[in-house]
Amino acid sequence: MSMPEPKTAWRLLKSAGVKYVRFVIVDIFGRPRVDILPIDEAKDAFIDGVLFDGSSIPAYGGVNRSDFVAMPDLDSVYIETWNGGKTALIFTSVMDGSRPSLRDPRNVLKSALETVKARGYKPLLGVELEFFLVKGDPPMYADGGVYFDGHLLHTWPVLEEIMEHFHLSGIGSTKTHHEVAPGQYEVNIPAGDPLEVADKVLAFKILAKSVAQRHGYTATFMPKPFWGINGSGAHVHLSLWRDGENLFASVKEPREELKYAVAGILQNAIANSVFVAPTVNSYKRLVPHHEAPTRIVWGLGNRSAMVRVPYYGGRINRLEYRHPDPSMNPYVAFASIVFSAYMGVEKRLEPPPPVDTVAYELEGVRETPRHLGDAVKYAQESALLPEEFVKPYLALKEEEWLSYLKSEGDWEKTWNKITRWEYNAYLVNV
């Protein structure tokens, strides 16, 4: 289906009762920045784009070169039905003069996908996105539930409303359940083109936070808001297609193409860590025995491994990368994941043997970085993504790490507790 003409898209939204348009510019951290226009004033922006000051959004531009244009992507429009349907979210891609800006995370993902698709591959990607419902400051989880808990008297109205608007807003169909930790839930972002899925991740975060706030809760995508219980992951499920065939589909034994992709992801896992686990708090999730990976290994149906190949009844059709968490910039994370898998297939990389033991007990294998500072260092040595994006991104992540150390002291003294600095930085901001 082709993208609608700008005037047609504007007319359809106006006739549907939309009063305001929120044009979304994604910042370097994956957070939505919005320019809000009444529907009549938005008509020109549909055609000519949104003009903005790039020097006021980290890493886009300096004060001496700050005039940017964000062009609406009319394939990525979501109606805020949770707010009465009077507002539309429209994602944009930023132009730097006549070319797409690679400071824009959406353009980074677009560039990676163009490379992969030019070789005849079609990646499909979905995400299991976990989050907490919390109350208060310091926060406490909203319930004492357990995995698949069915007695959610207080929080079910929140989940019910989120589920309803997930569908009505155009994000798609999903399922949800209570996760292992108290106050923790999971939704599935349906599989699709990675750019579309990344947009849906941001749209869902906006939806969930708005609905939760209306009920007196905070929906937080902070990876590890509470020590001693499971943190939240963003498990990425990936398949690679060519000429209408799923290259990962098999029965009992993994196909070579799947193993090559696994090898590419594992080989680049350390360098990609800062993109898929991008916060100080991310590395407090990546500790043993809480269903988060610490060893860079893979296995069939093994949830302690970094890459799990789902193996229900011996059928295989995708891989699951368990390293990412919901604080990720989904565009940058997906670009690094897809490109790593693609490189593995193209180079026919061989992975190590799969493991069927609990991976946390393995010795002599590579491990995830200890903390954000190490993750920044490793990415500087071998990042796969465009330098135009990576250089300012890593500089900002280095500042984030140093700010934490200045506030809280040595990592060795704080790695096993959640600090006030982290709540201030991440509880509502990721």
Provide tags for this entry.
Creatine Kinase, Chain A, domain 2; Ubiquitin-like (UB roll); globular; alpha+beta; ATP-binding; 430 residues; six-stranded mixed β-sheet; 13 helices; ten-stranded mixed β-sheet
Structure write-up:
With 430 residues, the chain is α+β, with helices and mostly antiparallel strands. It has two domains: 96 residues, Ubiquitin-like (UB roll) (Roll); 315 residues, Creatine Kinase, Chain A, domain 2 (2-Layer Sandwich). 35% of the residues lie in helices and 23% in strands. It is built from 13 helices and 18 strands. Strands 7, 8, 9, 10, 11, 12, 13, 15, 16 and 18 form a ten-stranded mixed beta sheet that branches. The longest helix is centred in the C-terminal third of the chain and has 22 residues. The protein is globular and about 60 Å long.
Helices and strands in order:
Blueprint lengths: L5 H10 L4 E7 L5 E7 L4 H6 L1 E4 L13 E13 L7 E10 L2 E2 L4 H14 L3 E14 L4 E2 L14 H13 L7 E3 L5 E9 L1 H21 L3 E3 L13 E9 L2 E2 L3 E2 L4 H12 L1 H8 L5 H4 L12 E3 L6 E3 L5 E2 L2 E3 L8 H18 L24 H11 L4 H22 L2 H4 L5 H7 L4
Parallel strand pairs: 1-5, 15-16
Antiparallel strand pairs: 1-2, 3-4, 4-5, 5-6, 7-8, 7-10, 7-11, 7-12, 9-10, 12-13, 12-18, 14-17, 16-18
